[in-house]
Amino acid sequence: MRTNDGKRALEKGAGGERLNAEEAHALVQVLSPDHLHALGAAAFKNRCNRYGLKATYIFNQHINPSNVCSLACAFCNYGAASDAPHAYSLDEAEILESVATLEPSEVHIVGGINDIWTFERSLQLIQSLRERFPDLFIKAFTAVEVAAFARSSRQSIADVLAALTAAGMNAMPGGGAEIFAARLRAKYWRNKISAHEWLEIHQQAHAMGITTNATMLFGIGDRWDERVAHMLTLRECQARSGGFECFIPLPFQPGGGNISTAGPSVAEILAVLALARLILDNIPHLKAYWPMAGLETAAAGLSWGADDMDGTIKEEKVAHMAGARTPIGLARRKMEETISLGGFEAVERDGWFKRQQQANGR
Ligand code: SF4
User: Fold this and answer.
1) Is residue 251 assigned to a domain?
2) Distance between CA atoms of 171 and 118, rounded to whole angstroms?
3) What is the mean pLDDT of residues 325-348?
4) Which residues contact 74 (CB under 8 A, 6 or more apart)?
5) Ligand 1 centroid from CA 182, angstroms
6) Which of 87, 99, 108, 332, CA to CA, is 20 to 30 A from 312?
7) Ligand 1 atom 3: the closest Cα is on which residue?
8) Is residue 22 part of a domain?
9) Looking at residue 154, what is its pLDDT?
């Protein structure tokens, strides 16, 4: 593959044309410092054709019911053995109280794999949230958790998803995909569901009308061709089932778990966003996830293809226990100032990615 192939792919991607697999892989040829600006410019042009200079965020809250986890992924500092000093478990009453206090428009619920928050208890949490907060958008449980619920309750994936939806769940987050490269799974998260199972669960959800997100962990010893392959796999899956709303690249947090790598550089984080914007033409939104990228880098990512900054988040634990040094939450004003600094128009959205009416009390 020559640099000229990469340049041609950039031109196609900038104009919003579908890149075939060979062209997507050719983009790796324009990742050198000599071409980095052209890559960013192509992604920016593509993004502006879709969304102009609007950049969305949501007033949301993360709920992490317990960090007790039996899977022991090597990169994770969040999951804990049940007797570890930093193990914790919230109860339903305190979760409901915190939602009542913060009044978010969306909650994002993920936690460890354990027998404390059983399927029945988790289902009850969704039901209680729905009853008490009828308008709340509830995004809950990764494919890894859904698979564990199915196993422990001896139900099918479809039955688990149907029960969660009936209780009031609106959508599923995209965590647990990590990176699909089998060699890294075997090394760092062999106890977790396989890439195939992750994709199957998301396709099942899409078939039932449940929208989901998709993630990619990177900066953990993965190669550029593996990142491109991950994105192409998601694109194929989306072509079949159509329910991915947003793609979220997650930079590995240096110092997380038992892995000694510096994590991705800022240029690498921006380049991954740009590649995603150019390759994933059938997934509507691309998120610059500030708790893991850093607030400034995520904001810069809006000029590298991203159109969403996630949210104010409030009580996030997963990235922060993994070593993220970003703030635990942001005020609306700080989020809007950060977005505006790059010349973008900050737009608050709801869980369906629809623009919100001006929120109360701002
Ligand atoms: S990444 Fe998730 S599944 Fe793996 S150990 Fe951490 S909490 Fe558990």
Assistant:
1) yes
2) 19
3) 87
4) 187, 188, 189, 257, 258, 259
5) 17
6) 87
7) 71
8) no
9) 97
